[in-house]
Amino acid sequence: MEYSGNEHEWLAILNPVSGGGKATKDRTKILAALDAHKILYKIIETKEPGDAIRFTKDAIEAGYRKILGIGGDGTVNEIVNGIYLQTAAKPIDVVFAFMPVGTGNDWVRTIGIPTDYMGAARTIKTGNYFYQDVGVVEYQNGTNRSKRYFVNVAGMGYDAFVTYASNQKTKGGKKMGKFTYLANLFRCLFRYSFTKVKVIIDQQEPIEDTMFSLNVGICKYNGNGMMQVPHAIPDDGILDLTLFHRLTKWEVIKNTSKLYDGSFVKEHFVSTHSGQQIRIESEPEIMLETDGESLGTSPFEFSLIHRGLKLISTLKNQEI
Q: 145 near 275, Cβ under 8 Å?
């Protein structure tokens, strides 16, 4: 990739299958919004998983310092990983902007980016920087240990099980809306088993129990608008943890609607915690997803880079 030499130019990475192909259908509208706000960009389209990571790394190493993502939560995750895997610049010196075109758009629900194209382009033009925390998770990938960066929510157990099943159904850009996701959620419910889990937060006394699902969040939402980590604040330097202990499958069904407003945390089978380092072990192993991307299995080690992502948003950072 050849850098144009214009420090104001963005590399725009578009995922054409995001939103069930909506990004392709709306491509003209998306570019028109950027042009209307006189945003200089070069656009490149992904073709397969991992492309946005590679394009981001290559662009930064070629001289770009502004990366614009156009897609869904998976596109966000790949670009953030590209920013952190490159070695040409400090990650905090790279500016990240985003135009949401996904089906869930869970990250932008917290982060203050408009979901309409003109609004998103207008936000980019403001140049208002928001410094967000970045999560880091180490996990088992077959016989190897791997690492992934994330900026929204990491789900384990049932959450990751449902995400994996949903991702299998949406291969090739098929769209999965809220109701289709819920139907898949309930189908998975009758195939999933509870697991013995040990959680260690900041080297404190372990929490050991038979658990259903776990979420570590920097932001609040995942699963197409479910507020599974309602206490999360994206720039406070803290990882928030929601644990779903043993409950009946009827309780899962009965309380699903409470996931959308966060009121489920009052239930007897839920506990919430926070810390800066979290280790999760299980027997047998459980699955992991971050920002909707299915990854590996336990054990997991979570840590945090405080305000490690420089993004353009309508939000303002809290005072420290």
A: no
